[in-house]
């Protein structure tokens, strides 16, 4: 089945969700996923987004077109002239029967761990996050390993679905390279791909997030991310292609 009708949607982005030059990329991806769900009525399973230019705060127009499929649906979402995404959705996701990605359960309540403080004037959207590092990696600490391992939660009771929340959290941490640097460098995401797994509902807002740079050149790098629920079920995985500007 192919539906050629284009549907129009909109999203309002608050200034508190700015990253550096524009709105946080994970929130942009979440908004495109929401538009795809609204247009198709199916459940999101994967997304591949190209982030071409910063999106300013305010109202942004989204369009959904090129809808294909029956039980498995695909569509293209455009966010103004700044980003596009191919979203793959399913009408019968089912439940997880096998996963090879796992982490150890937390030995302590994550809220008892020291909090990672990120200056709001440097990264405004950090005011919506509570991040509790597990390993020794810290931004701009000049460490040996480009890998962060944290517990994380959203501080606000925002109107996110499970998948939208996963998209936001997958893009919540800085590039893994930041753990090896000693000063800020602009490393924006230009491509973001994610897959979402069905999980058991949980009352806990906490997620385990493992995030690392797997390769880098002088101008490009790729980060890989795994997101787990508080009961350490795999919730989502992502890869990001980033441009190193300095």
UniProtKB/TrEMBL annotation:
Descriptive protein name: Acyl-CoA thioesterase
Domain of life: Bacteria
Residues covered by the Acyl-CoA thioesterase-like N-terminal HotDog domain: 15-80
InterPro entries xrefs: ACOT8-like_C, Acyl-CoA_hotdog, HotDog_dom_sf, Sec_Metab_Biosynth-Assoc, TesB_ACOT8-like_N
Domain annotation Acyl-CoA thioesterase-like C-terminal: ranges: 115-241
């Amino acid at each position: 089945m192919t539906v050629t009708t284009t549907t129009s949607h909109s999203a309002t982005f608050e200034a508190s969700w700015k990253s550096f030059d524009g709105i946080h990329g994970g929130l942009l991806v979440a908004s495109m996923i929401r538009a795809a769900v609204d247009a198709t009525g199916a459940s999101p399973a994967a997304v591949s987004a190209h982030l071409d230019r910063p999106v300013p705060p305010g109202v942004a127009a989204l369009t959904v077109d090129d809808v294909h499929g029956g039980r498995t649906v695909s569509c293209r979402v455009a966010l103004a002239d700044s980003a596009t995404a191919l979203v793959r959705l399913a009408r019968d996701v089912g439940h997880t029967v096998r996963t090879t990605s796992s982490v150890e359960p937390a030995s302590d309540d994550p809220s008892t761990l020291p909090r990672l403080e990120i200056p709001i004037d440097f990264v405004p959207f950090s005011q919506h996050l509570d991040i509790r590092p597990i390993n020794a990696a810290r931004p701009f600490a000049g460490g040996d390993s480009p890998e962060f391992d944290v517990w994380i939660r959203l501080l606000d009771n925002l109107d996110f679905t499970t998948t939208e929340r996963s998209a936001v959290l997958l893009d919540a941490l800085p590039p893994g390279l930041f753990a090896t640097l000693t000063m800020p460098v602009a490393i924006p995401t230009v491509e973001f791909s994610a897959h979402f797994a069905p999980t058991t509902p949980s009352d806990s807002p906490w997620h385990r997030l493992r995030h690392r740079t797997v390769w880098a050149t002088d101008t490009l790098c790729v980060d890989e991310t795994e997101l787990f629920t508080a009961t350490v079920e795999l919730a989502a995985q992502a890869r990001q292609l980033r441009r190193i500007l300095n």
